[in-house]
């Protein structure tokens, strides 16, 4: 077997830019809710899609969504807008990957652009057998990347607290069928 077919060792670190993903789309009538703004579930689905691509670009292995830490809807997105999703890896643990997603709306008539939503998601890198895979560290270069990465440790701690609370709550919830 020649050298080019040999698996390469994972790098110790990667730059945020190496995981950056952009996706732009239109808002069509079937994408809106009763308020004539982009349906939140549609936005959340695309957020998960682009974030998972960023995570896989970073680790070059399978990933699973561990949590959607936040989706903050800041401004309505209307049928007169395009919507641009920009994502990149903002933090890594041993096997976990935090991805930041910025959603920009653009009025297609005026050209006015605004940050309409932001989101943080966490993924876990996994081998084909489902066991967790180690991931490279991340290096932020731009001012925006540094701003987002600066508070990543704090978000990681909050995720651990929230996950513990969620597990405790789940352990106390009933799984019986409501009709029984």
TrEMBL record:
Family: Belongs to the acyl coenzyme A hydrolase family.
Superkingdom of this protein's organism: Bacteria
UniProt organism field: Paenibacillus helianthi
Matches recorded under InterPro entries: Cytosol_ACT (IPR040170), HOTDOG_ACOT (IPR033120), HotDog_dom_sf (IPR029069), Thioestr_dom (IPR006683)
Keywords: Hydrolase
PANTHER family per record: ACYL COENZYME A THIOESTER HYDROLASE, CYTOSOLIC ACYL COENZYME A THIOESTER HYDROLASE
Transmembrane residue ranges: none
A Pfam entry, by short name: 4HBT
Keyword DNA damage: no
All copies of domain HotDog ACOT-type, residue ranges: 17-129
Name of the protein in its database record: Acyl-CoA thioesterase
Gene3D superfamilies: Hotdog Thioesterase (3.10.129.10)
SUPFAM superfamilies, A to Z: Thioesterase/thiol ester dehydrase-isomerase (SSF54637)
């Amino acid at each position: 077997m020649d050298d080019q077919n040999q698996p390469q060792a994972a790098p110790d670190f990667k730059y945020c830019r190496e995981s950056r993903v952009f996706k732009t789309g239109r808002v069509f009538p079937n994408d809106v809710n009763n308020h004539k703004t982009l349906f939140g579930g549609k936005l959340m689905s695309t957020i998960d899609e682009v974030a998972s691509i960023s995570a896989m670009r970073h680790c070059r292995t399978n990933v699973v969504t561990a949590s959607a830490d936040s989706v903050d809807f800041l401004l309505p997105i209307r049928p007169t807008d395009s919507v641009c999703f920009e994502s990149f890896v903002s933090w890594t643990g041993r096997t976990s990957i935090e991805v930041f997603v910025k959603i920009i709306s653009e009025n297609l008539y005026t050209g006015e652009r605004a940050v309409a939503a932001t989101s943080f998601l966490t993924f876990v890198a996994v081998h084909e057998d489902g066991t967790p895979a180690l991931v490279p560290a991340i290096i932020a270069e731009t001012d925006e990347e540094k701003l987002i990465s600066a508070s990543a440790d704090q978000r990681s701690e909050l995720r651990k607290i929230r996950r513990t609370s969620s597990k405790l709550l789940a352990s106390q919830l009933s799984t019986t069928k409501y009709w029984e």
